[in-house]
Amino acid sequence: MDTIIVNGATYWLPENNNDVITLVNEASNNNEIICVRGSGHSFPLIGDLETEQKSSTGKTYKYIMLAKMYAVVMPDHNTVRVQAGCHLGVDPFDPTGISTVENSLCYYLDNVGTNAGDPSLNRALPDLGGITHQTVGGFLSTASSGGSTQFSFEDAIVSVDVVTCQGGHAAVTTFTKPTSGDPDDPFYAVGIASMGLFGVIVSATFSCIPQFYIEGSETIEYADKCSLINLFGTSPELPNMQTFLEQTQYTRLMWWPQQNNVPNTDLSRMVVWQASRTDQAGAADWAKHAYELMGEKPSADGLKPYEEVPYFLGSPIPANIAANLLYRAIGQWPTWLKNLFGEKNHLEYEIIKLLVEGNYPTKIFPAIMDIFVTVDTPTNKNKGPQLFSDRWYTGLPMDNQMSDQLMPVWFTELWIDINQSEQVMDKLKAYYDAQPITIDLSFSCEIYAARHNDFWLSPSYQQDVIRIDVFWFGYNQGDPATFYQSFWDLLAEFNYRPHWGKYIPDTVNGTPGVTYISARYPKWNDWMTLRNTMDPKQVFVNDYWRGKLGIPVV
Ligand SMILES: Cc1cc2nc3c(=O)[nH]c(=O)nc-3n(C[C@H](O)[C@H](O)[C@H](O)COP(=O)(O)OP(=O)(O)OC[C@H]3O[C@@H](n4cnc5c(N)ncnc54)[C@H](O)[C@@H]3O)c2cc1C
Domain 213-317+381-512 adopts which CATH fold? Predict the structure, then answer.
């Protein structure tokens, strides 16, 4: 079996289920712990595991990547079975170099009919996250989800095949959605949010829907002048946040919550991305309309893809580079300035530092916002909000064009009952309004939603949710967990459930994080009991999940 070294960890690259079974049996016999990596997009989880190399119990980690297990088959026109190492879309930084657009799940589905000579059989999944670099196994394991209360990825799952290690012997176990819909069926423990703790997911089966397109808009406004949502109770004629999240098919809000220190001038922005389903003709009409407004010729393919950043020579990379330089300069302030001046020029360093820091909140940061988060005007390039139309799998993941390496973003994401949307927004606004504009607070806060499901440890277990996703620029100095602690404590009263693939609190207002989190899940104990039965030797329990979930050592 081949191996590859990623960040100092040696990963086995199994090619089929038997290889995975062999690896799990070896781990069981040799007292090792299996650590699976998908595309490594869960921070700090995957990095921590790669650094540790062994558990505090003394057991060595056995690392596995399913990069060679990406086959896709369709047993019938509406069902797809995919190996868990398959990426949803291309992962541009896949360390094995195997991931391509063409071998990704979404591309396969979108073209499956055309390739068979009948485009009417092209297929889709109901929803996708903001990026599609993830593997199927990783996306399922952390209950990742797109921004919709109306459609969900989770609703499409029919079954998962998992290499488990019951009784110390590895074997493939299939968990299938019960036709009865019984929410107590083990399928709902394992299919989503199993964190790799039941075993290695080797494949999954999804129910597909007909291919679709999307049409939509992105509106950039000052938050206190938002024309789409009654954000803070001052525009009662508009839908409130909950209603907006419930009525909009697909949406994502990017809130730049910084309050201006200059009286009577606006600063805080709300960027509202929203889209609805359409067909190819609808997408083409929408694109034509958008191009007409812009005074440009329609594109040859009849679509008008969303541009998250201004494109230069047809590419988002130059804007990514500019943002990288700027955010690195902010994030690593003032270390680079100090290095630039050296010990000998300490006085000059102090003068410039004082000058910059004195002007940062009132002049420098507002100027950055004007350049990078420019409020719509009737005379801008789009003649108002940006309109876009696209295929489902290139349009829904609106953040694919941001580079994971140039603009790495880490998150903590708190999922809260959607009925509390207004109260959460008010609480956050009061918090942000009182904060000075610091380096850590120079970034945005994403707000979106997720649809309820019955998966026991899904953060949207049996409730639609509003998701508060606080951003941290990956090249910032300092510890994101320290920054996030304020949010974990502030929003504790809303009984949030944290996203499993993002930063998870170790404490909440002084209470152990696991005490707070476990109380949010009615089926927590059932999940734990089933997990212990499926993995009695704890072959799949690494230190990260042991700590976050409070799994005692056996
Ligand atoms: C830029 C960015 C954007 C994001 N956007 C969204 C979004 O819009 N919505 C959202 O919900 N989340 C989002 N996420 C979070 C992301 O979806 C999760 O972190 C997801 O788990 C990453 O998938 P992965 O393939 O990288 O898995 P990894 O991060 O590699 O692994 C995640 C977990 O899954 C386990 N695992 C992976 N594969 C298997 C397998 N085959 N069997 C068993 N266990 C396995 C791993 O052991 C680990 O515990 C985003 C993350 C980033 C960095």
Answer: Alpha-Beta Plaits (3.30.70)
Answer yes or no: is the C-beta of 141 below 6 A from any ligand 1 atom. yes
Predicted pLDDT at 142: 98
| CA of 145, closest atom in ligand 1 | 11
**Does the beta carbon of 6 lie inside 6 Å of ligand 1?**
no
| Residue 87 Cα to ligand 1 middle (Å) | 11
Sheet with strand 9-13: strands edge to edge? 2-6, 9-13, 61-65, 33-37
The verdict on the CB of residue 61 being under 6 Å from ligand 1 is no
- Convert the pLDDT of each residue in 155-186 to its tens digit: 999 999 999 999 889 999 999 999 999 999 99
Give per-residue burial for 276-299: e unless 16+ CB within 10 Å, then b. bbbebebbbebbbebeeeeeeeee
Cα 513 from chain centroid (whole Å) = 21
pLDDT of residue 439: 83
Backbone φ and ψ for 165, nearest 5 degrees, come out as -135, 50
Domain boundaries of the chain, sorted by first residue: 2-211+532-549, 213-317+381-512
Cβ atoms of 469 and 445 closer than 8 Å: yes
- pLDDT, tens digit (0-9, with 9 covering 90-100), for 90-145: 999 999 999 999 999 999 999 999 999 999 999 999 999 999 999 999 999 999 99
**276 Cα distance to chain centroid:** 20
Ligand 1 geometric centre to CA of 41 (Å): 5
Residue with tokens 């389903």: 277
Chain Cα centroid distance, residue 44: 13
CA nearest ligand 1 atom 7, residue: 129
User: In angstroms, rounded to a whole number, what is the distance separating the alpha carbons of residues 455 and 304?
Assistant: 36
Rounded to the nearest angstrom, the distance between the alpha carbon of 144 and the centre of ligand 1 is: 7
Residues contacting residue 116 through CB under 8 Å, at least 6 positions apart = none
Which of 17, 140, 142 for a ligand 1 pocket mutation test, highest count of atoms within 8 Å of Cβ?
A: 142
Amino acid making up residue 336: W
User: 485 alpha carbon to ligand 1 midpoint, in Å?
Assistant: 22
> Sign of torsion, CA 110 112 117 120?
negative
Under DSSP, the state recorded for 363 is I
Number of residues that make up the chain: 554
Separation of alpha carbons 400 and 403, rounded Å: 7
421-433 and 480-490 helices cross at what angle (nearest 10)? 130
Ligand 1 centroid – CA 406 distance (Å): 19
Instruction: Please indicate whether the domains covering 2-211+532-549 and 213-317+381-512 agree at the CATH topology level.
Output: no
124 Cβ closer than 6 Å to some ligand 1 atom:
no
Tokens (6 digits) for 410:
């880490």
182 CA from centroid of ligand 1 (Å): 27
Q: Could you name the CATH architecture of 2-211+532-549?
A: 2-Layer Sandwich (3.30)
